[in-house]
Amino acid sequence: MTVVVPVLDDADQLRTCLAALAAQTRPADEVIVVDNGSSDGSADVALAAGATVLHEPVRAIGAAAARGYDAARGELIARIDSDTVVPADWIERAVAWFDDPMVAAVTGPGHFRGLGPLASLFWQAAYMRAYFLLMTAALARPPLFGSNMLLTAAVWRAVRGRVHRADPLVHDDVDLAFQLDPAWRTVLDRSLAVSVSGSPVRDASGLVLRVRKAYRTIRLAGVRGVPTLRFLRRLAAGPRTPPPILAPEPGPHVTDPDPEPSRPT
Question: Which of 33-37, 99-103, 209-213 has the lowest average pLDDT?
């Protein structure tokens, strides 16, 4: 099981993120940190924590995340962000969902930290709950939340050629969710919550950019982004088993491989 963490100039929060991963009741088999051009020592923090570090030159979170997915050696791939802090049983509880062969992906919400009590309640409703509500309507099933998600390596290989990985104005988690077969099962486990930084919701210009990215992501999805068509396709096909869980062969499926990936010594 591989955990992928894209990072850009977020060394302090990354340190806390990786410490939480190291304290799991069911440890990850591999942690990959994909540095997207940091200048603050994020890569050194990752190496010190025992993670494998890859470097993605294309400045886009989708490119960084996809680079990690491509390199993953586990049969399951988890994705969190550098500001994510997972509870100690996060991996153990999340991977249990994949005992059901119908499950293609699992996701859960985030709880904002660093906000006052009232602000936290407001943004939990106005941002987090609204995200899952609106994107569930758009996708005709639960979306993926990039700070807290897992999918099988086989599912990633099935859709990796369709994601808009190099576009910096795309929400990579939503883009990936659009590419999944509507008949595959995505589990939203609301009890599988993680802690995420509240800084993004305090940035008004950042919120505007996130809305713009959402519209662009939906537009790029084309017919895959039409909720009615997705629902009808899902209804017509019925539940469909995703590609079976098989451990990927390490290396050959990596695109533009890092000539010397940094690994802990």
Answer: 209-213
Instruction: Write out pLDDT tens, residues 118-143.
Output: 999 999 999 999 999 999 988 888 99
CA dihedral sign of residues 91, 68, 111, 37: positive
For tokens 């249990």, the residue is: 96
Calpha distance 48→167 (Å, rounded): 31
Look up residue 85 and give its DSSP letter. Answer: B
Q: How far apart are CA 51 and CA 116, in angstroms?
A: 33
CA dist 132 and 126 (Å) reads: 11
Q: Are 148 and 5 a contacting pair, CB within 8 Å?
A: no
Reported pTM: 0.88
Taking the CA atoms of 111, 115, 116 and 119 in sequence, report the sign of the dihedral they define: negative
Give Cα separations from 49 to 18, 22, 36, 197, 243 (angstroms).
7, 8, 18, 21, 33
Round to whole Å and give the CA distance between 57 and 26. Answer: 32
- The reported pLDDT for the residue numbered 233 is 63
Residue entry with tokens 């569930």 = 136
Helix runs in the chain, H state only: 11-22, 42-48, 61-71, 90-96, 117-123, 130-139, 153-159, 172-179, 204-221, 227-237
Identify the DSSP state of 50.
Answer: T
Q: Are 145 and 231 a contacting pair, CB within 8 Å?
A: no
> What span, in angstroms and rounded, lies between the C-alpha atoms of 51 and 47?
5
Query: pLDDT tier at 241 (50, 70, 90 boundaries)?
Result: confident
- Single out the residue of 67, 131, 76 nearest to residue 98, CA to CA: 76
Could you count the other beta carbons within 10 Å of the beta carbon of residue 188? 17
